[in-house]
Each structure stands twice: as structure tokens, then as C-alpha cells.
Task: structure prediction
Amino acid sequence: MGRNLYELFRSRFPADRQRPILFDERDRRLTYAEAESSLFRMVGAFTAAGIRPGDRIAVQAEKSPELLVLYLASLAGGFVFQPINPAYREGELSHLLADAEPELVVCQPSQAERMAALSRARVLTLGADGTGTLPEAAAAAMPTHLICDRGADDPAALLYSSGTTGKPKGAILTHGNLASNGEALAQSWGFSSSDRLLHALPLFHAHGLFVAVSCALLSGATMRFLPRFDIASVLHFLPETTVFMGVPTYYTRLLQEPAFGPDVCRSIRLFVSGSAPLLAETFNRFRALTGHPILERYGLTETLMNSSNPLHGERVAGSVGLPLPGISMRIADAEDRALGDAEVGEIQVKGPNVCRGYWRNPAKTAEAFTADGWFRTGDLGRRDARGYYFIVGRAKDLIISGGLNVYPKEVEDCIDAVDGVAESAVVGVANADFGEAVVAAVVRRSAGPHPDETEVIRYVKERLANYKVPKQVRFLPELPRNAMGKVEKAQLRKLFAPR
Result:
């Protein structure tokens, strides 16, 4: 895998470059030839602006065909793509931009002024409709047809992830990481040029950007590109689809729709779920209704995909399947010693999919790897006698709601700033729709304002992305703590558990 990822994609494009790489929700098509012409013009515009290989391009823009072209242009030019959730507010953005130090920021036209104030980088705009100063600059630029020479260890993307404490960390994903993982997935899931992938996932997340896009481009397939998951649009386009990828929330929403059933799925060969645990109940209900056992897989920002239930063979409800080709997994104890079948310990991973470390953070990089080179996922799991892996919990308190990561400390810090709040603790509880729901326990100050649930939720909603906002707030006289003074979040989860 010693070459630029875009060069690998390009080698798998169909011989007829007039075939569509995607259709949008209004049936407008973008061909492979048009995508390549546009991306080379973007590379030319970036080069003319002084952006050099290895420079970061931070992108906070709504999903569009042009955003996909921007990602491919970043690969071809040897730049480092830094996708950012469009829902992030200033407090969340300021750290990401200050830490990554991008040379270029691409944002929505309405956010250009704010971005210029947050970063010293050059700012270009890209709207959801494909207009903005970036497309204008690309149209006026001389195209650069040379693909930058990149090795397997050269950075291709910078995705920020975090534990439950401290600032978010930038995982450095290389051309080799993305290429090896894309190849493993496309092969394991049987992708071919005849596939049509219904792409309803966001492009700021590894699931939509790396898993879905890589599988399609490495097989010369076509995508139906939806700007977001919209139940009416998904139901409309499913009958023309061969593969659908989603987070568990997508599947619970489909099961709630009276119009959803076997006839809608008549052309589907594969349903894939990831980014959060799929409840066995959802798996069983979906299979009973449609005849399709959802294929669940397991990955992390830092490792991309690690394991998958088989395309041909038993897909086990509640299991994340078997290690993907070229990837090793083990269950280890607190001393990083491998455990046997049925024993519970930390899931650790080794392979070409694992990121090379955290951006400018050697201490966290060292902590993330064992002495013998295994990556610590922080997830607790077990392996059965057949080699199937099961996740039983997380060593860290990370919450995954609707397939998106929520870091409790960030939400707690926000709640603690509410006038009248003494302290708070945030946990995730099982939720059939979102996988996990964010909930908060709050202790009020004895004197001063006494905020209610509505006030706390409104305050957080004004400052953080919606998926981080607690679904429920409960007020307690004090937080449960152990003898060392640490908040016992297990007790809080029981308090909030559905009855």
C-alpha cells in the first residue's frame, strides 16, 4: 500500500468514466470523469494559494457532491483532510483549529466571518448547494493533473477523538490505513461495480467518509447521495439500492414505518450497521420483517474498522463478528496479558488499519499502545469459541448516541456553567432509538437560582451540538461517590435505566 489513496481509487474506477459516481436526491448525476476534472481544478486552486502537501485543510461544510470532490482533491494533492461536524459551535471549533493549525479552512458561506475570527488560515466557502468561493476559485484555476507521491505512512486525514476527560485528540490516519481498511471491507462485503450504495450517512464521520465511500470507489460502484438520513427519501430510494449502511438509529426508525417491509428491500443484498451497538432486539425484529440479518461491524476513529460479521455465514445478534483480513484482535487483562475465550477484558487491536498516533501528542500516543504494540480500544469485550467478538461495555465513559460520540466531561462542563448548578454527572443509558441516550444528574447550589430541567437543556442546546444535549435531567441532593470521592456512574445509570 505504498501509494496515494486517490491513485488506488482511480485504478478501480470503471473503464467508462462517463458512468455516474453518484446521483443526488434530485437525480442530478456526477460522473467519474466530471469528479476527476473538478478535483484536479481544486488541487490547482489550493496549490496556487500556497497550500502544500502535508498541510491541513479543515472542513466544516454540509454534505454535498462537491464536499466529496473536496475530500478526493485533498487526497490527490497530498493534503491532510480534517472533517468537522457542521453542528459544532465556537467553543468546540476553537480547540480543533488551534490544535491542527490548518492552512485552509472550508466552511459554509454564512460561517466565513466566524471562521476568519477563529483561525489565521485562509478561508474559502462551500454551500450545501455546491456554490461558494471554493468552487469559484477552482473554476478559475489551472488544473493540476499530477497526483502527489504519498507513502503508506503519510497522513491523509486528521479526525479528532477523545476519552471522557481532557481535550479532543487528533488521530492521524494515513494513506496506508485508509487503503488497507477499504480493501478489507470491499472484499469482505463483496462489493462490485454493479452495486448501488444508498449513502445517507454524514461525511464528517469515519462511517460515511471512509467506510461507505471507500467501498464504493474501490469497486467502481455508484452511490445515491442523500444530504442526510430522511425516512421518506430512504424509503423512496431503497428499491433501487443493493447496499445500505446506517447507524442503529436508522434501523429503528425504519422499523417504525408502516410502509417499510420486504417489498421495499427487494433489490438489497446487504444491510450494514455500525458506529454504535445494535440491540439484539432490533436485529431480530428486522430479520423477522425483511428476511435480512443486519451485518454488524466494529471500529473506532483511531483504528477504522476492526471486525465484521461475515457476508456468507452466520451473523450473530449482539456480536461484532470476526477480525477483518489482516487485522488481529485480542482480549487482554489489566496487565495486557491475552485472555482466553469467554473471559472479559479490554479489546486490543493490531494491524495496518491502526492510526500511527495522535497529532502532536506523544504522551497520549504512548498511552494508547501496549509495550508489544497493540492498540488499547478502551472497550471491554469477550470472544466466544468460534472467534466472534462481543462488546460488553466501555472502560471509558464514552457515550455513543445515534452513532456519534459524546464525551461526558464536555457536557458536564457546560452544565456546570449554568447559574445555580453546583455539579453534574452525565451518563448514557440504553435507548432503542439512539442506541444510548445522554442523561444528566445535577446538584443545585443551596443558595441562588434553582434552574429546572428546561433551563438546563436550553442552556446546553445553545452551546453544544444537539446530539450532545441531555434527553433527561434529574436533580439530586448529591452525586453518589465511592470512598475515594469518585462519582459512581454505574449507580447513575441504574437510576436512569428505563423501568
Remarks:
- The chain has a mean pLDDT of 94.
- The CA atoms of residues 17 and 124 lie 29 Å apart.
